[in-house]
Sequence to fold (245 residues):
Amino acid sequence: MTDKKAVKKPALKEWTPVEKVILERRSIRAFKKEPLPDFMIRRILEAGRFAPSAGNSQPWKFIVVNSHEILAKMEEDARKAAKRLMWFLDYSRNGFRKIFLKPYTRLMIRLSPNELHPVPFALMREIAYDRAPVFHSAPTLILLLEDTRGVSSPPTDIGICGQNMILAAHSMGAGTCWIGLIKLLMYDRKWKKQFGVKYPYRLNNCIAVGWPKVKADGPVPREVQLVEWFEGGMDDKPRIERQGE
Ligand SMILES: Cc1cc2nc3c(=O)[nH]c(=O)nc-3n(C[C@H](O)[C@H](O)[C@H](O)COP(=O)(O)O)c2cc1C
Fold:
């Protein structure tokens, strides 16, 4: 391997402040009761507002939920929705359900492979049986609504926008967690009305923010990526590098 190709992983102190935030950020699932001060939430929103978007279309709308009453109701209703969903889909409860529900559940998973991927499926089952929270008792939720009329790929723009917010929050010592399962509330028209989720908007995702109650565990492992580097001519094969080792 030539010097040019040698990959030396820098020690953590050699990373830039931005890289450090990226590498050190972890999802936080235990928050102090006290919310972040409003000025910090506004700065987090500002980081989202400055995100790039296709054609600068900025296909988003932000909603901040700080109200104890509304947060408690959201938790309750999301749990109820998980219970309803699992009543129809969880065939593992007994032999009778296994025989009659399994084919139906399999069809639903095929129709909705992302929403019913084994990871959210398992989490929804935990929520349905009161073994896990939905919103982790976060004192603040930031809802990210997507303007479906955006240019090219509004979901991509929302992802970038949310990640800007999350990194900004972590750079300030706050904790965050994406809560994709907020979508459980969208089975209920009441919540669509509450948050104005109607054309051209749809609820894309949600970020829980607050002061972390505990230090996050160690990093969740990331897969080593086999990256193809095209460095020669058109007919040359790429060099494959194991990124992350
Ligand atoms: C789009 C998206 C949705 C997520 N939804 C949830 C969720 O509903 N509940 C939850 O506890 N974590 C959720 N997460 C957090 C992931 O589980 C977490 O990012 C992943 O396990 C990696 O861990 P880390 O964030 O600590 O590095 C979500 C993450 C993303 C990016």
